[in-house]
Amino acid sequence: MLVARDELKELMKKKFMAAGMHENHADDMAEVLAWSSERGLHSHGEVRVEYYTERISKGGMTIDPKVTWTQTGPCSGILDADNGCGYPFAIEGMQKAIDMAKENGIGFVGVANVSHTGAIGYYTEMAAKQGMIGLSCTQSDPMVIPYGGAEPFYGTNPIALAAPTADDRIVSFDMATTVQAWGKILDAKSAGRSIPEGWAVDEDGSPVTDPHKVNALVAIAGPKGYGLMMMVDILSGVLLGVPAGKHVSSMYHDLSEGRRLGHLNVAINPEYFCGADEFRAHMSEVLDELNAVKPGVGFDKVYWPGQRAQMRIQATKDAGGIEIVDDIYDYLVSDDLYRHSWDHKNRFAE
After folding, report:
1. Beta carbons of 132 and 268 less than 8 angstroms apart
2. Residue 210 pLDDT > 80, yes or no?
3. Annotated catalytic, 116?
């Protein structure tokens, strides 16, 4: 069914507050989820509400965290969130990075001991809207084999970047470092379809096309994706002094426990390099040139990263709302905190 963005955000916010979250944190969380939903990223939108509400209710997020900020240099610092909700502290961390970049050209801020931070493209776009280049990366729980391995070690470990232009366009991409998301394998399971070879492996580390035999996902481009996963884990895990690699906590194993995740935000001020005006003008030129590239067979146009997301946002506005599953809407308007337990499931929420 169609739900207006503002209504969807308010319904999600009320659920988080009913579970015990303070209004300001609930508002930040609902805003990032609504941002994801209006871009068609439902796996990081309203679909997550019931899981978060259960974790909050069971004490797996600290409602009143003892947050500490340590500025370790003119361009660096660590925000320790004491297992608080990931969204508001990732926002705060990026804003601190932006403020540093305004003063000194770059801001490098780690957010340590935090819960899940959702779609990290939101934080990079914060930087782009303030004239900065934004970079973010974050850990996730192990479900991907290292290249040549047979058992999970790294998570999907996403990377995001956003940059401003001389007009209203923002270059923005947010990508997992796996060939496909677990959700695609769930879809194949429910539909009784096979999956393409190269998406996942079985318990022996052999490629598998039966979605019921999947034991782990596979990195993009083999050793290259494996290297990117390690890079993310180093920057958002090892560097911040939180558990890394196969020691990253499970999203579902025990919802009463904190997760101690790491997240990194970087802001770069173009004024300290080629100059802000020149950078933005050149970025606009690049986007125009990309759109003018002759499309390949089977394609209608070359789109710049983030362009399709903007088209989806406009489509939701034209449609009068965001299309969500009826059952999720029924849950959001109900008095239930959660209807079925996400607790004590495996890394694939099964």
Report:
1. yes
2. yes
3. yes
Q: Which residue has the tokens 């003018």?
A: 292
Res 69: pLDDT? 98
Contact 134, 124 (CB under 8 A): yes
Contact predicate 132/98, CB 8 Å:
yes
Across the chain, mean pLDDT equals 95
Predicted confidence band of residue 188 (pLDDT cuts 50, 70, 90): confident
Q: Which among 233, 175, 187, 232 is positioned nearest to 214, based on CA atoms?
A: 187
Nearest-angstrom CA–CA distance, 106 and 73? 11
Tell me the per-residue pLDDT of 91-118, one tens digit each, with 9 for 90 and over: 999 999 999 999 999 999 999 999 999 9
Q: How far is it, in rounded angstroms, from Cα 32 to Cα 48?
A: 11
Residue 243 near residue 249 (C-beta atoms within 8 A) = yes
This prediction has a pTM of: 0.95
Supply 292's token pair: 């003018």
Query: How far is Cα 168 from Cα 185, in angstroms, rounded to an integer?
Result: 36
Maximum distance among all Cα pairs of the chain, rounded to whole angstroms: 56
Catalytic residue among 25, 42, 44, 116: 116
**pLDDT tens column, 257-299:** 999 999 999 999 999 999 999 999 999 999 999 999 999 999 9
Please report the sign of the dihedral spanned by the C-alpha atoms of residue 298, residue 302, residue 306, residue 310. negative
How many whole angstroms separate alpha carbon 222 and alpha carbon 214?
A: 17
Percent of the chain with pLDDT over 90: 92
DSSP string, 149-210: -SS--B----EEEEEE-SSS-EEEEEE-SBSS-HHHHHHHHHHT----TTSEE-TTS-B---
Q: Do the strands 170-175 and 200-201 form a parallel or antiparallel pair, or are they unpaired?
A: unpaired
Q: What is the pLDDT of residues 70-95, one digit of tens each?
A: 999 999 999 999 999 999 999 999 99
In sequence order, what DSSP letters do the residues of 30-72 get, joined into one string? Answer: HHHHHHHHHTT-GGGTGGGHHHHHHHHHTTSS-SS---EEEEE
8 A C-beta contact, residue 27 and residue 60: no
